[in-house]
């Protein structure tokens, strides 16, 4: 699995976590709203109970004063009827409040079930995150191993570069030795040419004897002798340089590694 695929999987998991958290927040807001409504209904029920107590006190007072207020009994009876009707209405209201409280309890139960499901989902996501962390640690270990391998390869490359450098220096020295050998061959060619000219001059002098051409023969002999001497000196210098390079090449690390 590539790093881009891993990042995509992590983004998907984070998106799921975000959606779950948003759902939990909405559920918590609903639960808070329901609790506030329940508190408001409780306040209304308390107020209604207080009103009922007041009405009950009024009824007791009317009963105690019934003898003294016989003339007003009809009015009190009507008032009592109205109070009974109001009490019935309050009882109906209380019944409705009880039904609403039952519905709220059912909703609270549903919210609790949903919260439990969210907790399970969160646990599953935590397990997935743990597995991803383990996989990421495995990838980190593999990356460290590959880094160590790359370091070893870099060390090997440096060693090969040093070897190549030593070989290049050895090749340069061999090139210099080849140059000196070529110079030695050039001097040997001069010696060979000088000997040929010397032999030619002696041959012409011996064949023609003393004459006007003897000067040309002498010049050929002198030229041949000069070439032989010059070529001999140059060849000796080239031979000495070649010996020095042979000593250097004998101690060359590049050639030893090549061997």
Describe this structure in words.
This protein has helices at 3-64, 73-208, 214-250, 253-258. By secondary structure, the chain is mainly α. The chain folds into 2 domains: 3-160; 162-258. Helix 1 runs antiparallel to helix 2 (73-208) and helix 2 (73-208) runs antiparallel to helix 3. The radius of gyration is 60 Å and the shape is rod-shaped.
Task: Throw out a few tags for this protein.
mainly alpha, 4 helices
Helices and strands in order:
Elements lengths: L2 H62 L8 H136 L5 H37 L2 H6 L1
Helix pairs in contact: 1-2, 2-3
Extract low-pLDDT stretches. none
Residues in helices, as a percent range? over 70%
Element-by-element helix/strand order: HHHH
N-to-C span: 47 Å
Main sheet overview = none
Based on CA atoms alone, the radius of gyration comes out at: 60 Å
Which overall shape is indicated by the principal axes computed on the Cα atoms? Answer: rod-shaped
How many domains make up the coordinates? Answer: 2
Count of DSSP H/I helices: 4
Secondary-structure class: mainly alpha
Oligomer: single chain
**Content of β-strand:** under 5%
Mean pLDDT: 81
SS elements, strand count: 0
Quick structural summary:
The protein has 4 helices and no strands. Helices cover 93% and strands 0% of the residues.
């Amino acid at each position: 699995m590539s790093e881009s695929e891993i990042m995509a999987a992590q983004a998907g998991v984070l998106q799921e976590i975000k959606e779950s958290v948003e759902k939990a927040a909405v559920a918590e807001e609903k639960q808070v709203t329901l609790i506030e409504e329940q508190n408001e209904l409780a306040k209304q029920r308390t107020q209604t109970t207080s009103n009922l107590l007041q009405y009950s006190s009024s009824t007791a007072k009317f009963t105690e004063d019934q003898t003294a207020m016989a003339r007003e009994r009809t009015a009190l009876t009507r008032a009592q009827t109205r109070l009974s009707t109001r009490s019935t209405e309050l009882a109906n209201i209380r019944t409705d409040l009880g039904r609403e409280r039952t519905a709220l309890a059912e909703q609270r139960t549903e919210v609790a079930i949903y919260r439990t499901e969210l907790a399970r989902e969160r646990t599953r996501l935590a397990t997935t995150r743990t597995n991803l962390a383990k996989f990421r640690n495995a990838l980190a270990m593999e990356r460290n191993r590959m880094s160590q391998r790359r370091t070893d390869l870099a060390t090997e490359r440096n060693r090969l570069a040093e070897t190549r450098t030593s070989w290049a220096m050895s090749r340069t020295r061999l090139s210099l030795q080849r140059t000196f050998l070529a110079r030695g061959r050039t001097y040997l060619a001069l010696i060979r040419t000088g000997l040929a000219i010397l032999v030619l001059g002696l041959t012409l002098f011996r064949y023609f004897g003393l004459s006007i051409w003897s000067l040309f023969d002498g010049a050929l002999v002198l030229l041949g002798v000069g070439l032989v001497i010059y070529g001999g000196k140059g060849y000796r210098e080239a031979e000495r340089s070649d010996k020095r390079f042979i000593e250097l090449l004998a101690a060359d690390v590049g050639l030893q590694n090549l061997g």
